[in-house]
Design goal:
The chain is mainly alpha-helical. It has helices at about 1-25, 25-45, 45-55, 65-80, 90-115, 125-155, 160-165, 175-195, 195-220, 230-260, 275-285, 295-320, 325-340. The chain has one domain (about 25-320): Mitochondrial carrier domain (Mitochondrial carrier fold). Helix 2 runs antiparallel to helix 5, helix 2 (about 25-45) runs antiparallel to helix 12 (about 295-320) and helix 6 crosses helix 9. The termini are far apart.
Length: about 350
């Protein structure tokens, strides 16, 4: 009997220790953890669709007329199951810090705006502004990883060559993440690691802002008793990602083509500015190319954004992150108390 009591006391002590431990972690660190987990989990779920989408966007010759099902069959036949995850290591390596920074800076920008402009209305417009700047910040810090992910995903290696004769590196430009980094840096310098960053920034500002805008706007219309329902969060996230991506997709196509331009054997004149590249792609490849892979992107964005937002909210609850309004009130209260204590008595 005493043994059961002792185990019960130990379990109770452990349960009490968890909140105490979490309480010592700064709020921004909790938001970084929650965002990183959400991003990595969501990206891995949709990795096969992401691979096919990149091959469509970059006009890989053998995938131009195969369609979605045909592309899946071709990858499975030539590269095996692991082919669907080619470049996913670089993708996850990028998305974890990207999502962590994206969600955390969104919360920080939101608090900063509320503090500096207390008259601003707390609603979807605030989320639009904070989300836009958060997206730009995250892109600048993690763009080289996105470039590497795209270059690796663009490569198609016959698995029979790997199994029988070994990889023929003349047919494979890069042997992995580090090799892609070093080769790009050696050939083009630091500037080469940011090839295509301009359309990324042009695209991410409206996309990230609209994504948060639509998500928070839809949640604001959900009855209070259903706000924590996972299905509701998934639906809100799906629609938010769908609408946000539609408006900015052509810029994503420009970015992908600029990233793999050096790998294109039939490449003509170099793509130079974002808007000039947009016009050139429309003229040389047709305006439909600006939306190539969009249907796949819809299939990818719906679960990706939905899972991302949902996992982020679940992780925040697990890590006991206070609500946005509670944190904002706490920050303002501390500053008021600090100003009061500094006044002469």
């Amino acid at each position: 009997m005493s043994g059961k009591k002792r185990r019960g006391q130990e379990e109770s002590a452990a349960e009490l220790a968890v909140p105490g431990l979490l309480g010592n972690i700064p709020v921004y660190a909790k938001e970084l953890i929650a965002g990183g987990v959400a991003g990595g989990f969501a990206k891995t779920v949709v990795a096969p669709l992401e691979r096919v989408k990149i091959l469509f966007q970059t006009r890989r010759t053998e995938f131009q007329s195969t369609g979605l099902v045909g592309s899946f069959k071709k990858i499975a036949r030539t590269e095996g199951v692991l082919g669907f995850y080619r470049g996913n290591g670089a993708s996850v390596a990028r998305i974890v810090p990207y999502a962590a920074l994206h969600y955390m800076t969104y919360e920080q920008y939101r608090r900063w705006i509320i503090h500096c402009f207390p008259e601003i209305t707390r609603g979807p417009v605030l989320d639009l502004i904070a989300g836009s700047f958060a997206g730009g910040t995250a892109v600048l810090f993690t763009y080289p990883l996105d470039l590497v992910r795209t270059k690796l995903a663009y490569q198609v290696v016959d698995s029979s060559n790997v199994a029988v004769r070994g990889i023929r590196f003349s047919d494979q430009a890069y042997r992995g993440i580090l090799d892609c980094f070093s080769t790009t840096l050696r050939e083009s310098g630091v500037r080469g690691l940011y090839r295509g960053v301009a359309p990324s920034l042009y695209g991410i500002f409206p996309y990230a802002g609209l994504k948060f805008y639509f998500y928070e706007e839809m949640k604001s219309h959900v009855p209070e008793e259903h706000k924590k329902d996972i299905v509701i969060k998934l639906v809100c996230g799906s629609v938010a990602g769908l609408l946000g991506q539609t408006f900015t997709y052509p810029l994503d196509v420009v970015r992908r083509q600029m990233q793999v331009e050096r790998l294109l054997a039939s490449n003509g004149t170099e793509l130079k500015g974002t808007w000039e590249s947009l016009v050139k792609i429309a003229q040389r490849q047709g305006w439909k190319q600006l939306f190539s892979g969009l249907s796949i992107n819809y299939l990818k964005v719906v679960p990706s954004v939905a899972i991302g937002f949902t996992v982020y909210d679940i992780m925040k609850a697990y890590l006991r992150v206070p609500s946005r309004d509670e944190v904002a009130i706490e920050v303002v209260t501390k500053e008021i108390n600090g100003q009061t204590s500094s006044l002469p008595t």
